[in-house]
Amino acid sequence: MNNKILLVDDEVLQLKIMERLLKSDGYQCISVTSVQEAELVLKNQIPDLIISDYEMPEANGFVFREKLLKNDALKNVPFLFLTSFNQEDLVQKGLDLQALDYIPKNIPPSQLLAKINNLMNTVHEQYQKSLSEIKNIAKKLNLSNIPPKAPLLKHFEIHYFNQSYQNHPGGDFIDFIKINERYTIMVLGDVMGKKWGAWFFSFSFLSYIRSAVRICVLDGNLCLSEILHKINKVIYADDFLKDIFSTLSMVLVDDEEAKITYAGAGDLPLLKFSHQHQGLLSHQSDGILLGFLENSTFSEQDITFEVGEEAYLVSDGMIDFEVNAVKKSDINLLKKRLYDLKISGKSTEEIKEILFNKEVSQIDDCSFIIIKRK
Amino acid sequence: MKISTVKTDKALIINIEEAEANFSKSDQFKELVFQEIEKGHHQLIISFKQVDYLDSSFLGAVVAVLKYLIPLQGKLVLVELNADIKNLFELTRLDKVFEIKKDINEASNIF
Domain STAS spans what residues (chain B) (predicted)? Predict the structure, then answer.
């Protein structure tokens, strides 16, 4: 549930009282004493609610609200006035500026908290309703960037996981394209961006990928280098996607020979667990991000498996960590964690539980495919 | 999103004045740099000196800047990347398409 509130008031004591009240109910507060300071905060983060005083030196609450309404990124952030200036004309003007409420400062704290809770619950419910409606429409249109189930193969067990960021749809996409009884193509991609924008674009990328695979297969061509080359060409030529880039890991599973072929575009390396090696092996692809260059080459590499060995495809959210409020990207940390989990004998389900534990700070959407040789 | 610019006789230096270069700043960063390019600055040095963490959205914005400059015969050099960020460019093969130099002095030599 979203709970970050920006408090704007030139009276420091009032800010302290509000902070104490809101924090006691689980809210996070950012307190500032002027509109100028509030604007600096809003350059870096968007709160879930803004509560502003009316009378402040330099710029007052109405000036602040008018500026917010002109800013596309901020105009829809729920806004409340909390002030001692309660003449009718001011209340009317505050409400005309699309504030959700105009609250007198002498309101009893319990009532103020109840109003804020009701408002936040309504906003959250409305968001969930809209999200659910869009997801339903996407489902009806057969738009899905994560498949409902993994393919069942003779020689490999396939598992996959996808965890969205803060419950927003994201730019990661996964697909399994079964060519015939022998061959299956697996893709894991990540459109650069977060939340809605990346989610919408992921369908454009997936459509091109599915089409290119089908067209190549119809021509009897299962060469990943050529399939990726075609995908890249069409994406490069699409003006709609000219500023949008995506990584892509592509694996062709040969279920008869029990081997896989791998190629990629700007993706993180395929990782492989083998009992013979200390640590996970990295198989780096050589392709550049889809859509960046008109003519890119994408070399493919064969990867053989002994029984019990596993390969992992990961999106970049899997290597982003937040430790002590410091964010960093560290593939070696992921490799170490995965290797330690494997040698400690953890099952695939347990590994999933540990990697996607809610206690672990996640800062992007995360996707993960496990290919295990039976 | 804060950037500052310094014009030298060889290039426009763009300093990213943010510790966290992320999704919430990537679109604005792209627009600010595009504006500089439209003003005629086609030789750019982007400094990451103050950036501790860069996410894939912001990385995408930097890639978009390079793609925008290529048909204009422009040049873009990235400097002062910390080890994590440099590693991210290498992991995604972007070190093959970007000129990455240690500092502004080193970057200035290639214009």
Answer: 18-111
* Ramachandran angles phi, psi of A322, nearest 5°: -120, 115
The answer to whether A267 faces chain B, any CB pair under 8 Å, is yes
Chain B residues with CB inside 8 Å of A72's CB? none
Q: Is the pTM of this model over 0.80?
A: no
ipTM over 0.95: no
Fold classified for A145-373? Phosphatase 2c; domain 1 (3.60.40)
Nearest-neighbour CA in chain B from A342: distance (Å): 23
Does the pLDDT value for residue A361 go beyond 60? no
Range 34-73 of B in CB contact (< 8 A) with A: 52-57, 59-60, 63-64, 67
Superfamily the domain A4-138 falls into: Response regulator (3.40.50.2300)
CB A204 within 8 A of CB A240: yes
Taking the C-alpha atoms of residue A192 and residue B94, their distance in angstroms, rounded to an integer, is 13
| pLDDT tens digit sequence for A149-200 | 999 999 999 999 888 776 667 788 999 999 999 999 999 999 987 666 678 8
Q: Which CATH architecture has domain B3-108?
A: 2-Layer Sandwich (3.30)
